[in-house]
Write a structure and sequence with these properties.
It is a single chain. The chain has 603 residues and is an alpha+beta fold. 44% of the residues lie in helices and 13% in strands. It is built from 20 helices and 16 strands. It has helices spanning 13-33, 36-47, 50-63, 80-89, 120-138, 154-165, 186-193, 197-207, 231-239, 242-253, 266-271, 289-305, 373-389, 395-413, 419-440, 446-453, 500-507, 515-523, 565-582, 590-601; strands at residues 99-105, 112-117, 171-176, 211-213, 216-218, 274-278, 281-286, 316-319, 331-333, 336-342, 365-371, 454-457, 460-466, 473-474, 541-545, 560-564. The strands form five sheets. Strands 2-1-4-5 form a four-stranded mixed beta sheet, with no helix packed on it. Helix 1 packs across helix 5 (120-138).
Length: 603
């Protein structure tokens, strides 16, 4: 694509994304095979690609949440002409301007977190290098590393913990790294990245660029500037190897016997310990307390090589079922409370939620994961303060403030046992609604307030809404969010591996297939609607109309499905037989009508 012949608005973004993704997929495969020479060649090709540079500029100027945040040069946004100029000039030159230090409060705490905001050009360069480095490291990252990786989420980490605790109760090291981004050793990290000189010089320039905090310049002798696009990837590279280091020590130094007295094999011993990491938070789980203590020492030795250490105030060892050193069982991780409860009358435990089994043939405990008390308290306070600040504003403004927060919080916790918590928050929230109405109209009666602001909804007859609009605009409820089971990402999968059927059915999008096919695969959970088998990359498939067009079916996506080619032919035959049977016999037009039906069914 010649940059001189295109305006910014004329760029075909779908084509750019597809071309860049093909290069990233080749980098991933070469890295997976250990072909370092091919990886370097492809990375050079990608950073010099016009399509990659366009996507990098588009990401930092149009897509990112902080796109309107200025660096030390004070530039917040670019015109389309300047975006094209920046794309042409985007080259790795081993130079970088200082970052602007911004302090933001930690959620629910008085502490503040430092962010380093680079200028727009450095942000675009970081996005470009991120495109080249991420596929290489995705081929090597450990199985249970979930933070800041494509296709992985907090829910995957929580589900991994649930699977680890499903078989037995364990001791848990709940660890937190002190100032992870600010204390990473530059030399060690550059050696670990092990990239070619051009990339190394540019990364080093970002490390040494320094920060400007309140018009004061400070050199950066250690740490990764938190706030840059490439910072999470560099932090993941720094912590890569923690899981394997701990598991290697357990495999080589621990001997475990089964209940029958037989020694376990090395593979089973390795699998007996679980190390699950999300960014700089991680947990180590094992059934033996002394092994967990030793794993903590091994983890501290690994972190010390990167210049990091554990934050002792937030690092603790607990048990998932029993009290340990006067500490309550269970632990909090990523806003979830993870704890095991005794169930059944024989064990003296209470059933923690309706429907829990008391069958003696099952385990005498149940693993319960729910929103943590701290997360619920923060959500309470956020909604409470928001309602207080909008006491003199219209109901539309209040509902517009509430709905994104209610929807986002509910969607985050809908994969665990949250029904009871959702109901409690809604009950409290309805009381806040009523107080808001009374303070807004102190001289009006209850009947007036209910008639003016509340309607009957799925969750009750106290739904805040604006009745004056033709189209009802009402506040959403937590309890209306359905609780569903999250399916953890397969440990050996990556979006760069080319398995479009898996990732399209999981994410609802993929660069190499059309949005319609990706949407249908996600809707069908990757399965053929005819035979119920998974649709694989190598399978032939076709798009079918659920209700044929000749029977009144619509052409929209809501009336479409994906079938294997053989399943589609079988369904077409059944549809044609049914259509012919329902038509009155006319010898002169039967053949013509059947031919027309075949043409329509095969569209």
């Amino acid at each position: 694509m010649n940059p001189l012949r295109y305006e910014w608005s004329d760029i075909d973004w779908a084509k750019c994304r597809s071309l860049v993704f093909k290069l990233q997929k080749r980098i991933y495969r070469a890295s997976k095979c250990g072909d370092l020479s091919s990886v370097r060649k492809l990375q050079r090709l990608l950073v010099n690609s016009w399509s990659a540079r366009c996507l990098a500029v588009k990401k930092v100027t149009q897509e990112n949440k902080g796109k309107n945040t200025a660096g030390v040069d004070g530039v917040k946004s670019l015109t389309n002409t300047k975006k094209v100029c920046l794309t042409n000039d985007l080259k790795l030159n081993a130079k970088a301007l200082p970052t602007r230090r911004v302090w933001i409060p930690k959620p629910g705490k008085k502490e503040q977190r430092p962010l380093g905001i680079p200028v727009i050009k450095d942000r675009a360069l970081q996005a470009l290098m991120h495109m080249a480095l991420e596929p290489e490291w995705e081929a090597h990252f450990e199985e249970n590393s979930y933070g800041f990786r494509p296709g992985r989420s907090c829910q995957d980490a929580i589900d991994a913990i649930h699977l680890s605790l499903k078989a037995q109760n364990k001791y848990v090291l709940d660890a937190d790294i002190a100032q992870c981004f600010d204390k990473i050793d530059h030399k060690t990290l550059l050696a670990k990245i092990n990239t070619f000189p051009k990339f190394r010089r540019q990364i080093k320039a970002w490390f040494k660029a320094g920060v400007i905090d309140r018009k004061t310049f400070t050199n950066t002798k250690m740490g990764v500037p938190q706030g840059g696009i490439i910072s999470p990837l560099l932090a993941n590279i720094a912590l890569h190897g923690l899981e394997n280091t701990v598991k290697d020590w357990v495999e080589n130094n621990v001997k475990i016997k089964s209940p029958g007295g037989k020694s376990l094999g090395r593979k089973e011993i390795r699998q007996s310990v679980s190390v699950i990491r999300y960014a700089d938070d991680f947990v180590i789980m094992h059934k033996d307390y002394n092994i967990v203590l030793k794993c903590k020492e091994v983890a501290e030795e690994f972190l010390a090589k990167m210049g990091l250490e554990l934050k002792q105030a937030k690092t603790r060892i607990c048990h998932t079922l029993e009290k340990l050193n006067d500490q309550e069982p269970g632990f909090d991780f990523l806003g979830f409370e993870i704890r095991q409860h005794k169930v059944g009358k024989d064990q003296g435990g209470k059933i923690p939620f309706p429907g829990a089994s008391q069958n003696k043939r099952r385990k005498d405990y149940k693993t319960i994961i729910r929103p943590s008390k701290e997360a619920v308290r923060r959500h309470y306070n956020d909604l409470k303060i928001g309602l207080k600040m909008r006491i003199n504003q219209s109901v539309d403004t209040v509902v517009a403030f509430l709905n994104p927060r209610i929807r986002g919080w509910s969607n985050y916790y809908k994969y665990v046992i949250s029904s009871q918590v959702f109901r409690q928050i809604d009950d409290w929230l309805y009381q806040r609604y009523w107080r808001w109405c009374r303070r807004k109209h102190p001289n009006r009666g209850s009947k007036f307030l209910k008639r003016k602001y509340f309607v009957n909804g799925n969750s009750g007859n106290w739904v805040l809404a604006n009745k004056e609009k033709d189209e009802l605009f009402y506040a959403e409820s937590h309890r209306n969010t359905a609780i569903i089971r999250h399916i953890k990402v397969r440990q050996d999968k990556s979006p760069y591996d080319g398995d479009w059927s898996y990732w399209a059915s999981r994410l609802g999008e993929y660069p190499e297939i059309s949005p319609k096919i990706a949407t249908l695969l996600k809707k069908q959970k990757g399965k053929c609607s005819g035979c119920g088998l998974y649709i694989r990359c190598e399978d032939d498939f076709e798009i079918d109309h659920v209700i044929p067009l000749v029977e009144g079916g619509k052409r929209g996506i809501e009336n479409q499905q994906i079938l294997h080619e053989s399943c589609h032919k079988e369904k077409n035959g059944e549809d044609m037989q049914r259509i012919i049977a329902n038509q009155s016999y006319n010898p002169q037009s039967t053949k013509r009508r059947i031919k027309r039906y075949r043409q329509i069914l095969c569209q």
